[in-house]
From TrEMBL:
Transmembrane segments: none annotated. InterPro entries: Glyco_trans_1. Its EC number is 2.4.-.-. This is Glycosyltransferase. Residues 188-333 form the Glycosyl transferase family domain. It is an enzyme of class 2 (transferase).
């Protein structure tokens, strides 16, 4: 019998970077006969909402869970402490029945009941903390990670956060997410194209307002494609209409399996986030040889980008600095080798990730 690995997650849309990483991780482990995996989503986030109100019971199916033979806990009360009790009770029965060797928690609250259930009932599994967000996100209390046997940090700065919260350094493992090696995309020469791919939030985490404002300060022949969906889609559309650069924008709404197919041949990726974990879109862009212009937010961009070498960083909220970098792309002053960009993230590619993953569970 191989080692059993249980991965717990919650409050995900099914369209984000974390879901992609869990799918890839499941694929790698499933093809190795030494391991069996089970993934449980404790809440679908927006899937439990209807007309702005919480639905207690969710009957729908989520393709990302179905594709990896996982399961979705259907209940959500919207009351924090009650949901915690519901989740803990459900996971108790899963742990007793499944008897895993490892419990991997993507949320900090999951660490609490995974550890308490283990101690109360004398179970032998290892508990791993694997968050996909930084302290700056405000999602949970990282101090609960001291209850884990090991902590997997998807960025170097998250590793630092673990240690500052009280986790012993020898229990912290640098464990960045995997990316596929992709064909290099040829850049367009006729018109400079910038692209944003992700959740449509005008402020908050993604700060798309900064991108729109920066575009209004840039001269020349260029366009900005905004690809994705989210609760601020209509606000963003209206804000673009009132921008002096309104003719420069193309808003492509909706979640698609291949957003890069819609992106075409962009000259640069734009990211203006207030916070990240390890931004998947940067790895996807760089694997295609696309130069990335990103805010220097906590955490993740610096794991990929060596400023002024394989990409460019600007301070969070500094619209003028972002506009200046965009202008340099339009003027042809920023034009690094796509091959060098793709090679610079060699450590992040799937073959290297597989080595790291199997080492964790050995």
């Amino acid at each position: 019998m191989g080692k059993k690995i249980l991965i717990l997650t919650s409050f995900v849309s099914g369209m984000g970077g974390m879901e992609k990483v869990i799918e890839r991780t499941n694929t790698i482990l499933s093809k190795n006969k030494k391991y069996t995996t089970r993934i449980i989503s404790l809440s679908g986030g927006q899937s439990n909402l209807m007309n702005g109100k919480t639905k207690f019971f969710y009957t729908g199916k989520e393709s990302w869970i179905s594709n990896i033979n996982g399961s979705r806990f259907p209940f959500r009360s919207g009351i924090k402490h009650l949901d915690f009790i519901l989740h803990a009770t459900y996971i108790f029965f899963v742990l007793i029945r499944y008897r895993p060797d490892y419990v991997v928690c993507t949320g900090f609250g999951q660490l609490v009941y995974a550890n308490k259930i283990r101690n109360l009932f004398g179970l032998k599994y290892k508990v791993l903390s694997w968050p996909h967000f930084s302290i700056a996100s405000g999602f949970g209390n990282i101090k609960y990670s001291t209850q884990a046997d090991y902590c997997l940090g998807i960025s170097k700065e998250i590793n630092d956060e673990f240690i500052k919260s009280g986790v012993a350094p020898e229990k912290v493992i640098y464990f960045p997410n995997p990316f596929s090696r992709m064909d290099i995309i040829k850049r367009k020469n006729d018109i400079t194209t910038f692209v944003f791919i992700g959740r449509l939030l005008i402020d908050g985490q993604k700060r798309i307002r900064d991108i729109i404002d920066a575009a209004g300060k840039v001269n020349g022949d260029f366009c900005v494609k905004i690809i994705g969906d989210g609760e601020d889609a209509e606000l963003i559309e209206k804000y673009i209409e009132n921008s002096p650069a309104n003719k420069k924008f193309e808003l492509l709404r909706g979640w698609v399996n291949d957003p890069w197919g819609l992106a075409g041949n962009p000259n640069a990726l734009l990211l203006a986030s207030a916070f990240e974990g390890l931004p998947t879109v940067i790895g996807e862009a760089m694997s295609r040889g696309i130069v990335c212009i990103s805010s220097d937010c906590k955490t993740g961009p610096r794991d990929f980008i060596e400023d002024e070498e394989n990409g460019y960083l600007f301070p969070v909220g500094d619209v003028d600095s972002l506009a200046n970098l965009m202008q340099r792309v339009v003027d042809g002053d920023i034009n690094p080798s796509p091959e060098i960009i793709a090679k610079s993230i060699d450590f992040f590619y799937e073959d290297r990730y597989e080595e790291r993953l199997l080492k964790v569970f050995n």
